[in-house]
Write a structure and sequence with these properties.
The protein is an alpha+beta fold and about 775 residues long. Among the domains are: about 10-165 and about 295-325, no CATH class; about 170-290, no CATH class; about 485-570 and about 605-735, no CATH class. Helices cover about 15% and strands about 25% of the residues. It contains 15 helices and 33 strands. Strands 1, 2, 3, 4, 5, 6, 16, 17, 20 and 21 form a ten-stranded mixed beta sheet that branches. Strands 7-15-11-12 form a four-stranded antiparallel beta sheet, with no helix packed on it. Strands 8-14-13 form a three-stranded antiparallel beta sheet, with no helix packed on it. It starts with 8 loop residues before the first helix and ends in a 6-residue tail after the last strand. The relative contact order is 0.10.
Amino acid sequence: MRHEFRISSAALAVAVALAWAPGSQARVTRIVIDNTATIAGQPGYEQLTGRAFGELDANDPHNALITDLALAGSNGKATYVASFRIRKPKDGPFSGVMWHDVPNRGGDVGFPTDSFAGGDVQLLSGWQGDNAGGTAVPANAACLPPYTAGCATPAFNNHYVMTPVVQGLKGMVLGRIVNKPFGPPTNANGTPNQNANATNQPLNVMGNPIPYFPANSSDNSKATMKVHLSETVNGAIAEGETIPNSDWKFCYGAGGTFASPGAPTSLPVRVCLGNSRTFDAKKLYQVVYEAKDPYVLGAGTAAFRDVGSFFRYASAADGNPLAGKISSQIIRGVSQSGNFTRHYIFLGMNEDESGRIVHEGAWPLIAGRRVANNSRWGQPDGVLELYQMGSEGPQWWHSFPDRARNIHPGGILDRCSLNNTCPKIVETFGGAEVFALKMTPSWVGTDPKNDIPLPDNVRRYYLPSSTHGGGNGAFDQSPADSGVSCPGNNWGRGTLRANPVPSVALVNRMRVALRDWVTNGTPPPPSKWPLMRGPNAERTLVEATKSAMGFPSNVPGIPDSIFQAENFIFPIFDYDWGSEYDHFNASGNPNNQPPSILGVVKMMVPKVDADGNELGGVPTVLRDAPVGTYLGWNITAGSDSAQYDGRPFHAGQVCNYIGGMVPFAKTKAERMANKDPRLSLEERYGTHKGYVNAVKAAANNAACQDYLLTGPEAAGLGAKCARSQLPAGAADDWALLVRQAADSNVLCKDFHVAPGTNPPVSKCFDDSGL
């Protein structure tokens, strides 16, 4: 949840007092703490919000890989301003552990209860320097105390980094408009729906503006707009016409028109059609245009390094409010931020400019690639739709060949291995990362023949049959058939129910495990993910076909057509980004727009059981005591679906990185009537008590393999392998899951309103054995 505070005159005085300029050789040259506030529900903690001012030397070897750094700034030096936020004990005790959380598209990151209870510190700092949408740099970001009317304290609405800009540099950029127009002319609150305009549409990536203005907004002569009639998941494109430049113009603002486009004042860049043309929801519009003034995005990665190093190592005399309190630091990122975590390690940024390790631990969650944050014209908001960067170069930890793309061997850990600055790494992810976020080449390479061994400092945990980030955890035999939104650029809706398989319990367990591993060397549980090789029972990574997976036929709502190569799994493409681009390091200038597709990398997927649920991952309760088939993928709706909403371009293809669910029938008669091959709930469990017992068995299996936190409350409920004590603030997830199952509607015949619940909550009162 984002917290925003108004700065008082007293806080201004604090900001002045805490503005600090260190001596020479400091990469962070000044910090300003703009606000100090209490944290609701955590009286022993306080929150500091401020800015870090820094300088980067293009001649320093630690910065050598930063694209265009030498072209920015002056005398080989370039500056940045990065936001930061610290949550720390007011007076102690401090545990010594600091979690350096990576903001996702400028957003806040919550701090878990057990981290507060354990006396840990949280640091968030900006890294994404494209100044667009959620990462917009506020006015006055560079202002320093003493403030004046014209240069006051900047408002804090999001995390950002003000990166250097290469003024006057030009190049070609690609943007796409898909499934437009859609929605009603007005929003629910009565305001105009800016995306419903049939002649004026923005150039966005993942809902945020493409961050580059045209070199000349009044001249589109160097630009091209092509129509795509269709695109398959594996890159087959049916092109339509090239729209004459006389029929479109750049325009600015939702009220911009073809007749009077106006001058660019703010993002997004918009395109206006004229001469009686309108955008067609059945088509995609691809614009390649000349842009100017690229950001030095890699400076944001270095800023993240420098801020982490400052609060890890700087002294009280340097102005560090955490001086002497931090003995270990863990970088943690989720989704896009997890991709950044992998990117950060690959670039060797975990070594600061003094040669010290910055983060002793690292945790990329639900992250299957690296973020595009070190190339000219990069778009770090991208989610790996067609022509978006993020899978270039090695995606695996160990050095390994890349034969399919003919790139020399390498790995993410190559640079940190040279100077002993590699962190201890835990990675967690699930089904959606396999089917839409191109995860499996990091396990088996680009020409899958063998499993790539994990280095000793890496642990890997796969949450089978899960959606991106996990589901709501509901034990529900009758989930609502409301459809789900597919992420990405106006992808549309999914035809299947939302996948409820939660990630919370695994995340809770791995947070404790990584902390223990970093602080006292306690090994985490064994890695667990689908493998190509090994004993027969462990060969659970196969080709992405229905037959190889063993997926059952006639599961309601799942047509065989979804398993066709053009519909089923997003592959890595071998793009030719041009001669000025470094395809190994994913740096330099991608001067070939749109890039040619030289080849399609073969993807692998987990095998499934007779229900269609995935094999080979960490034991998890809802998957092992299922009430349906849980999928790491969904199916994009078309005009023949109840979930159709006017956006059919990707109809029938895998819905962009969101999972699905198909519930089991409740009775054998219902199953037979629907010709459903999967056993009904009654055939599996008999009664509600039988289902709760199955959940207990699944929870015991996970706990006894050390993948589930199990404490004294669980022991009182009959749990096996329960701990006598959990870390302070940690959840007893065994007990929580089993109580959820006992209260659920699964095969329940007797419901009552639970005493003391407001609003009233109905719970099952069948004999559950609790």
